Amino acid sequence: MKPLSESEIQEKLKELPNWAYSENAIHTSLEFENFTSAFSAMTLMAFEAERLQHHPNWYNVYNCVDISLSTHDAGGVTEKDFELAFAFEKVLS
After folding, report:
1. Is 55 left (phi over 0), alpha (psi -120 to 50) or beta?
2. Which of 74, 81, 73 is nearest to 20 (CA)?
3. What is the pLDDT of residues 11-64, one digit of tens each?
4. Which CATH number fits domain 6-92: 3.30.465.10, 3.30.530.20, 3.40.50.620, 3.30.1360.20?
5. What DSSP string runs through 61-81?
6. Which of 3, 25, 35, 71 has an alpha carbon within 20 to 30 A of 83's alpha carbon?
7. Does this model's pTM top 0.90?
């Protein structure tokens, strides 16, 4: 799978207003009511990641979750990253 160009990434991000592109990945930061809510959301997102066989880099502290998506094998952001970002957004809605 080949990485998307920066212009392709920026165009796709128009559909994901809570996401941004930097450091060769797409990122979002989420804040929940408490740790249990954050962990529950991460669990649901983990099922999506496993279903798509594409896994995020994420970081959790208490009620906050930071997510970065990049396809390491391709050396950048690919369609797989956007597919997972859209799946995460659906889980969170």
Report:
1. beta
2. 81
3. 999 999 999 999 999 999 999 999 999 999 999 999 999 999 999 999 999 999
4. 3.30.1360.20
5. ETTEEEEEE-BTTTTB--HHH
6. 35
7. yes
